[in-house]
Amino acid sequence: MIWKKGIPVHVSIDHVTKTIKGETVLNDICLELESGSVYGLRGKNGSGKTMLLRVLCGLVVPSGGRVIVDGEALHEGERSFPASVGVLIENPGIIRSYSGFRYLQSVASVRGIASDEDIVRMMQRLGLDPLSRKPLRSYSLGMRQKIGIIEALMEKPELVLLDEPFNALDDGSVREVVRLIDEMRTEGALAVVSSHDRDELDLISDVIVNMRGGCVTGIERQGAA
């Protein structure tokens, strides 16, 4: 799978705060994210990782601060979502009566970027049979997770946001997802990945962002002396 090298993406998270029912779930987050890098979000459940991903993709409007993608702030003009983004957040939403291929084909038809051949290649790489008529409702958790990953990646987006992508995957599939993320980075995409698996996050990330209680508590640049 080849990501097309496009215009470099820059994301600025500018003093982002999110409050829900009086509880601050994101507290004054400031980060600068650049193309060609993988940023790992590390923290326990409730640390704010998933909420930050929701804000980054435009699904949640911050209570304060801004997310600026290539100089354009989300929700302040005509743009509410990044122009080229692939997202896997929590459990992927699927049409349970469809087969895996038919579901991905229906999603791809919206923008017309991913071809049937792209979908077949991605399914085969992750060990799914594109010819199977088995409905998604009968898929295991790991198989549904693979469908969600393919949905996020099949259009070769410039910005990729993955929340716990290794959840329920077998070791071989984890290695294949790691290879896909590495291919994305090589071709200039920007990825933000949350994971509870410290080893996998260390393996794929250029930068680790540690979070606790809705705050960034530290930033580690991998390979730094």
UniProtKB/TrEMBL annotation:
Every ABC transporter domain range: 11-225
InterPro entries found in the cross-reference section: AAA+_ATPase, ABC_transporter-like_ATP-bd, ABC_transporter-like_CS, ABC_Transporter_VariousFunc, P-loop_NTPase
Stored SUPFAM superfamilies: P-loop containing nucleoside triphosphate hydrolases (SSF52540)
Pfam families in the cross-refs: ABC_tran
UniProt entry tagged with the keyword Repeat: no
GO molecular function, a single term: ATP binding
Keyword flag Magnesium: no
Keywords: ATP-binding, Nucleotide-binding, Transport
PANTHER family reported for this sequence: ABC TRANSPORTER ATP-BINDING PROTEIN ALBC-RELATED
Protein's name in the database: ABC transporter, ATP-binding protein
